[in-house]
Recover the amino acids of this structure.
């Protein structure tokens, strides 16, 4: 601060004030600025005014005008800044909207149940009845009526878990009041001796109870004596499809599976049938879909074949139709069945089937609610 | 079935390479597990042969399929040595043998070749082929039997003729107490239902399964009896299973071999032995007949082919395929009469022939159509609909859905089912899967432990599924577990550990979703008198009444007023510890029997009441009562004392502490009154409140505060 006010000192003060008022963000800062420049006792501008008396009269007037002009500028700039600060302040009761909301936990439906529901919905659109059956079964429904008499080698294909003693099985179809004799179905398995190895057991129960046409999907859990590994669990979920009517052909099976696969995997998914063997269908077919990993060009997922096996199917064996009292000359049918895990693994890119049964929330919570 | 490409080409002139053969055959029903290249000249294709096609478990069998697929002729060039035809030409050193078939139903045909042999290694080319087929070379004699097995599919066995007492072979069932040391060194006990090959005194082999060690061909063997026979598939299968002994031979016999093949195979083996300088054929003794069972004739109707496949196949194509596969085809009125070769054990009826046509005509020629819908489908199983609704309700309450195995370790099941209620699996994979789950809770509690061990402190899970008990059978249930905090950490606070009334609210919410008003009563552990598991389903099958898996005093049985529907409460620390949880980690659980819940709801119909037209009046009272008095009893007394205009009673405060005498509790209730047809007056509400207070005073010595 020079002893006598001159123009350059004045301009330096002005520049200093302008810079500092521009960066002031709080009332306290504005108050401090006011005091520094305009306080009666120690304000720097006040100080300049006090020194005016020491100036020669000819310049006192001119400098006095300039100092007063600076004082007015500072006062009005502080006013503007104060008003702006007040305007930018949140209203009473305002909250910080960037804080997290109070948690309303949302659980997730199990991925296998999501896929199961999707399959159920696809086939509901195609006019199928969806129903559940018992998980424990007797030998007749799980094997014998499905063209697998005792000692049939094909029983080895499905290593069966047996119960030490028979129990009563679960109820099925109790809601249907329109069975063959007008009464509800004989809805309980009286002496279940094994854990069903496939949902196909319900083919027999249903056909024994209802006349053709038959068009059903049976989802549910099945059990096999398989060790746990990346692709096997001793319990898994299947769904079974069965259609029996006059004039049903292998072409109907193919068209139906194409519709299902395209609904599940998109309209570019292709279906291929390969001859295979199941005791309860003839002809039998394994069904492949074009690989979802490479679109059919060949990759590690499909072992460079372009195809992935997803289900087993075939025309219902006449021996099965005959076992339930249907006329195999009059009606024909097709059946198919697949593991829901298999579809879920393909759809969601899951490479270890055991994840579906660990119930790890970090896994489950990756699926949309 | 590993097939060497060069061996295959001796039977069919297929020019295509292994990859193309694999591609084509996998579309004909023979999936290819792999293609293996050995050196530069050998390629092995590993075909997966389905259980119904034992005839393809040989080079010749696969060659026949490949010939049909590629429309090529099959080359048969198997001849026996001239000496074989003349059974009178015997060497002086070898005694002739006698063969007796005691059980012609189990073994209708048995050819025995007697040969003088020089035992040694087989030639390199033969060893190479065996190795390519996955068979370990042993000696020239054994190698030839295995070579013929791979080539033609006929299992054979060589006995050291000198070890056969009385030069005799008897095919008979074993006598009780007989034993046999088999080639694998095991001493095996035989039973009367097992077919054996015996000599004059004892068994020397288990028919179709494995030979005996005593009569094994050794370096010292000078003459052999070469067995080539047909054995009943069921008999071999039962014996193999009973002994737990599966061999290349038993696998083929139990699926069904070609009845006509043993003679051909014996000639082929003898010729090979002669060719490699291992043996001089001496005689062939045949017992039984391969031809006394007529070949099966099956009618094939043209229209059935189209009716099943949905595509018409030209006549020439049908007969070409069948003839190429070895069927004898003659024209009939509406199709063909087809004679089935003995090797095709899988072809029994018309549909089996149609499958052959479909296979080789190509599944890719089947168009995609859609079955006509002729009637509306029945409604979806209401249990599925209900499960979907429960899923929506539970996820909305923050519970994620779990899926657990249906079987668990016995120790984990016992607290929930009790020793006498557990359904044991006769042949479990391991102890961890020993019994069917009597409750969904063990699986859910394990899932809590799994998550807690992985930094997931707050766990809410539910599951819908079947559970199993001896008396109740298979029954469906819903269960939920809740552990950790209510609401996550929040800057505004408000988080606290989950408690009994949180899980009770979950139970009530499930009840509401099902349309069920649930009542909770404390589980009386000492008397065990609430809802003891009854044998009759529906009456009381919600679970064992003593609920040993819950903590006494923090557990309730849930009823609809009459029937037990389930249980709710704090999991016993001992049970939590079984699953690897710390005893101090509180896990609250609920489980409801869906069969009972649904049967209760099914009996009701929904009818809507009109909305109230007059205002309600609420009054609060605070009373001092014994702390042991149950809220439910207070509510009931109030309802009995009040007029029917009382529509709601709700506790809104319960206080113990400063100002309340020891052993007492201050209970505050809000009573709401409303009439459907008028506005209630102050006086009548006051009268109702007075009546309520009088009753509470009289019944419980309640003091108004």
């Amino acid at each position: 601060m020079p002893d006598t006010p001159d123009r350059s000192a004045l301009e330096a003060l002005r520049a200093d004030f302008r810079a500092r008022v521009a960066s002031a963000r709080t009332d306290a800062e504005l108050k401090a600025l006011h005091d520094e420049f305009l306080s009666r006792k120690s304000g720097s501008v006040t100080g300049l005014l006090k020194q005016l008396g020491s100036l020669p009269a000819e310049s006192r007037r001119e400098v006095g005008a300039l100092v007063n002009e600076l004082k007015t500028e500072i006062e009005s700039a502080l006013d503007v800044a104060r008003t702006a600060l007040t305007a930018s302040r949140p209203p009473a009761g305002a909250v910080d909207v960037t804080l997290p909301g109070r948690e309303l936990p949302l659980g997730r439906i199990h991925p296998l149940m999501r896929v199961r529901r999707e399959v159920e919905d696809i086939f509901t659109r195609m006019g199928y009845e969806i129903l559940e059956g018992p998980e424990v079964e007797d030998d007749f429904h799980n094997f014998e009526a499905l063209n697998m008499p005792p000692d049939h080698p094909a029983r080895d294909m499905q290593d069966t878990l047996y119960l030490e003693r028979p129990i009563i099985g679960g109820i099925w179809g109790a809601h249907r009041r329109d069975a063959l004799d007008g009464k509800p179905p004989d809805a309980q398995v009286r002496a279940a001796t094994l854990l069903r190895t496939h949902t196909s057991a319900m083919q027999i129960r249903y056909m024994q109870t209802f006349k053709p046409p038959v068009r059903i999907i049976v989802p549910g859990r099945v059990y096999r004596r398989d060790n746990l590994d990346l692709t096997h669990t001793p319990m898994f979920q299947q769904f079974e499809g069965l259609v029996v009517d006059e004039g049903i052909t292998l072409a109907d099976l193919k068209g139906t599976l194409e519709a299902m696969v395209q609904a599940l995997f998109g309209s570019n998914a292709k279906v291929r049938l390969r001859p295979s063997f199941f005791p309860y269908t003839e002809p039998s077919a394994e069904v492949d879909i074009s690989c979802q990993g490479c679109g059919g060009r060949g990759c590690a997922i499909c072992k460079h074949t372009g195809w992935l096996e997803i289900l087993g199917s075939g025309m219902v064996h006449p021996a099965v139709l005959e076992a339930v009292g249907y006329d195999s000359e009059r009606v024909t049918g097709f059946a198919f069945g697949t593991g829901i895990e298999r579809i879920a693994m393909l759809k969601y890119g899951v490479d270890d089937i055991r994840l579906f049964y660990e119930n790890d929330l970090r896994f489950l919570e990756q699926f949309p609610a | 079935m590993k097939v060497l490409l060069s061996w295959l080409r001796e039977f069919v002139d297929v020019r295509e390479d292994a990859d193309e053969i694999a591609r084509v055959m996998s579309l004909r029903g023979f999936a290819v597990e792999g293609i293996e290249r050995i050196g530069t000249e050998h390629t092995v294709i590993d075909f997966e042969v389905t259980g119904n096609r034992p005839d393809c478990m040989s080079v010749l069998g696969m060659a026949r399929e490949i010939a049909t697929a590629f429309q090529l002729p099959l080359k048969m060039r198997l001849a026996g040595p001239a000496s074989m035809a003349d059974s009178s030409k015997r060497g002086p050193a070898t005694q002739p043998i006698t063969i007796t078939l005691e059980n012609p139903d189990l073994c209708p045909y048995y050819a025995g070749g007697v040969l003088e042999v020089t035992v040694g290694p087989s030639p390199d080319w033969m060893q190479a082929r065996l190795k390519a087929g996955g068979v370990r070379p042993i000696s020239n004699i054994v190698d030839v039997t295995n070579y013929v097995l791979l080539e033609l599919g006929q299992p054979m066995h060589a006995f050291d003729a000198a070890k056969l007492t009385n030069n005799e072979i008897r095919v008979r069932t074993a006598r009780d107490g007989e034993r046999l040391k088999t080639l694998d060194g095991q001493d095996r006990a035989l039973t009367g239902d097992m077919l054996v090959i015996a000599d004059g005194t004892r068994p020397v082999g288990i028919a179709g399964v494995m030979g005996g060690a005593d009569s094994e061909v050794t370096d010292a063997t000078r003459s052999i009896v070469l067995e080539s026979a047909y054995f009943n598939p069921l008999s071999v299968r039962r014996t193999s299973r009973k002994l737990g002994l599966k061999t290349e031979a038993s696998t083929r016999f139990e699926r069904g071999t070609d009845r006509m093949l043993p003679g051909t195979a014996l000639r082929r083996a003898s010729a090979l032995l002669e060719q490699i300088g291992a043996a001089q054929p001496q005689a062939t003794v045949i017992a039984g007949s391969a031809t006394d069972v007529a070949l099966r004739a099956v009618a094939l109707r043209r229209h059935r082919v189209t009716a099943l496949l949905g595509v018409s196949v030209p006549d020439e194509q049908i007969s070409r395929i069948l003839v190429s596969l070895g069927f004898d085809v003659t024209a009939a009125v509406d199709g063909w009469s087809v004679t089935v070769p003995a090797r095709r054990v899988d072809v029994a009826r018309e549909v089996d022939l149609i499958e052959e046509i479909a296979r080789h005509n190509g599944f890719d020629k089947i168009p995609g159509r859609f079955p006509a819908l002729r009637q509306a489908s029945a409604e979806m199983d209401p249990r599925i609909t209900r499960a979907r609704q429960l899923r929506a309700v539970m996820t909305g309450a923050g519970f994620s859905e779990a899926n657990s195995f249906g079987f668990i370790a016995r120790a984990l099941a016992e607290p929930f089912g009790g020793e006498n209620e557990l359904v044991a699996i006769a042949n479990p994979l391991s102890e961890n899967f020993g019994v069917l789950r009597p409750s969904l809770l063990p699986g859910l509690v394990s899932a809590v432990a799994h998550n807690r061990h992985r930094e997931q402190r707050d766990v809410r899970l539910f599951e819908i599924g079947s559970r199993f008990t001896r008396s109740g059978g298979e029954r469906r249930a819903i269960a939920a577990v809740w552990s950790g905090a209510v609401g996550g950490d929040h800057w505004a606070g408000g988080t606290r550990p989950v408690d009994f009334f949180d899980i009770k609210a979950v139970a009530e919410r499930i009840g509401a979703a099902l349309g069920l008003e649930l009542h909770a009563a404390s589980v009386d552990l000492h008397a065990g008198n609430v809802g003891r598991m009854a044998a009759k389903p529906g009456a009381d099958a919600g679970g064992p009444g003593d609920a040993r898996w819950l903590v006494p005093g923090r557990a309730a049985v849930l009823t609809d007023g009459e029937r037990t529907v389930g249980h709710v409460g704090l999991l016993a620390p001992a049970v939590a510890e079984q699953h690897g949880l710390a005893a101090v980690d509180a896990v609250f659980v609920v489980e409801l029997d869906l069969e009972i819940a649904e049967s209760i709801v099914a009996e009701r119909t929904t009818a809507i009441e009109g909305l109230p037209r007059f205002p309600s009046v609420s009054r609060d009272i605070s009373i001092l009562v014994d702390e042991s008095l149950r809220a439910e009893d207070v509510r009931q007394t109030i309802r009995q004392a009040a007029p029917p205009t009382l529509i709601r009673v709700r506790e809104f405060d319960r206080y113990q502490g400063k100002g309340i005498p020891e052993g007492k509790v201050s209970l505050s209730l809000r009573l709401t009154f409303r009439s459907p047809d008028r506005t209630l007056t102050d006086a009548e509400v006051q009268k109702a409140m007075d009546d309520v207070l009088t009753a509470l005073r009289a019944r419980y010595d309640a003091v108004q505060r």
Chain B has 20 helices and 32 strands. Confidence is low (pLDDT under 50) at residues 79-92, 525-544 of chain B. The domain at 82-288 of chain B is CATH 3.50.40.10 (Phenylalanyl-tRNA Synthetase; Chain B, domain 3).
